[in-house]
Amino acid sequence: MTYNVAEIRNQFPILTQKVYKKPLIYLDNAATTQKPDVVIQSLETYYSKYNANIHRGVHFLSSHCTDATESARKTVQKFINAAHPHEIIFTRGTTEAINLVAKTFGQIELKKGDKVLVTRMEHHSNIVPWQMACEQYGAELCVVEIDKQGTIDLNSYEKALNENVKIAAFTHISNTLGTINDVKKMVEMAHSQDIPVLIDGAQAIQHTHVDVQDLDADFYVFSGHKVYAPTGIGVLYGKEKWLEKLPPWEGGGEMIDRVSFEKTTYNTLPFKFEAGTPNYIGAIALGVALDYIQNIGIDSIKAHEEELLRYATERISEINDLEIIGTAEHKSSVLSFIVKNIHPYDIGVLLDKTGIAVRTGNHCTQPLHDWYNISGTVRASFAMYNTKSEIDYFIEKLDFVLNMLQ
Amino acid sequence: MSNIEEKQKTIVDEFSIFDDWMDRYAHLIEQGKDLEGLKEENRTDNNIINGCQSKVWLSAEYKDGKIYFTADSDAILTKGLVALVIRVFTGETPEEILKTEPWFIKEIGLQENLSPTRSNGLTSMLKQIKFYAMAFKAKYEA
């Protein structure tokens, strides 16, 4: 089947939107993706026809919502090829999933003198939770450096993996550089030293095939809103043995087995980690989004996006005094750049006036920007519905605003 | 009409001849380019106002009952806005500054720059101008 981008665009109502009376060119997909009709409709259907709190409800609607939620869990399981549905924990997003692991893992595994390994290119949400856990237990946060292209130096990574390291946490794809890390290799290297790993999949799940068993990841986390699903829902995948071992983190309803004032026993997986009423309609819509992607085919999406990135990189290289930040050999859907003597903010504000949405600033990766000695970049990021003609328009307008600013 | 209000009105008149965004922004960029700004060595952490996106530096001097501002930014659009704000407030008395709202920003269609989410440092700069006025008033006019 050929990839029909026009047909895909028809599924996304926001793409016909105008801003400042100009067609919207949405190139801020690494921040969040737009939603297809099926996802929007699933929210409407569930809120207007089936809404009832899930689990233990004996009535029709509650049973229906419970089934749909648990079926969404299975959809996620299949999408990332997890061994069991109870290895899928619904969270608010990537950030909450990392915090969950950092808190509970820290509690049982971290003590004074231990180390947690992260990389230079991590998003703040894969730095700060670990930093907090390290502070709490007297452990140390260690950083694996990258080269100028934005590739992790596997030699220094290997050297850093010593017996004091209790966990390694790294991103699958960099939100700023677009670098696709060789995560399978990195997991293998960590495991050879008996070190578990957490992979931040926030920028990978929507662009590439993820198989957590093949990767042998101990934890893999991602957000729904970056994979065409609603905000406020995300996933923590954890190997059963780890999720069994970790203590619960939030207390409340749903996560308990039996409560008395003397002692509470906890529910089994996955409910042990899902205290309170979860965002079950968000979870159901996430399932719908993943099915939608599956129908189009993640490999076709990947091929389309690779071509967009190749084309955009080629076109943007025509512009004088422009430097691409992140030139790794394996890249995905993210094009960050700076222009000599021009502030990224100015470029972003003026592009906005032409209908183009890009992101400017430090993209929540300040340590990475410090390393490159830059205060920010302009980032264009692509999704399955972007087109080459949008890139042409973007380049044309970029050229125009740079002329204004020079 | 007070001098400070006159100045706001002049800026509004100046911008009223531009009917599309491009000309308005081009004019704003000119304002930024024309602003002398601060010398590199005066762009210190003491007078920096950190926006998430762009930085603003602001310093103030009190002379003969009036406050004189100098300011700068690392982004040219922010610097243009800063230049306009400075034009309005500089050379005025603390009292005048304290009672003046910079309504001209909305009038010239650049109010989105005042949104706290814009984080270009402009909102904080306006607050800082009022703080200077309060501080100088307390110090010299109490």
Q: What is the annotated CATH architecture of chain B?
A: Alpha-Beta Complex
Question: Given the helix and strand composition of chain A, which structural class is it?
Answer: alpha/beta
The CATH class name of chain B reads Alpha Beta
Which oligomerization state do the chains in this entry correspond to? heterodimer
Mean pLDDT of chain B: 89
Instruction: Return the domain count of chain A.
Output: 2
What's the helix count of chain B? 6
Summarize the topology.
The complex is a heterodimer of chains A (406) and B (142).
Chain A: H1 5-10, E1 18-19, E2 22-23, E3 25-26, H2 37-50, H3 60-79, E4 88-91, H4 94-109, E5 115-119, H5 128-137, E6 140-144, H6 154-160, E7 165-171, H7 183-191, E8 197-200, H8 212-215, E9 219-223, E10 234-238, H9 240-245, E11 256-259, E12 264-266, H10 280-296, H11 298-316, E13 322-325, E14 334-339, H12 344-353, E15 356-357, E16 359-361, H13 366-372, E17 377-381, H14 388-405
Parallel strand pairs in A: 3-15, 5-6, 5-7, 7-8, 8-9
Antiparallel strand pairs in A: 1-2, 4-10, 9-10, 11-12, 13-14, 14-17, 16-17
Helix pairs in contact in A: 2-10, 3-10, 4-5, 11-14, 12-14
Chain B: H1 3-16, H2 21-34, E1 48-50, E2 55-63, E3 66-73, H3 76-89, H4 94-99, H5 104-107, H6 122-140
Helix pairs in contact in B: 1-3, 2-3, 3-6
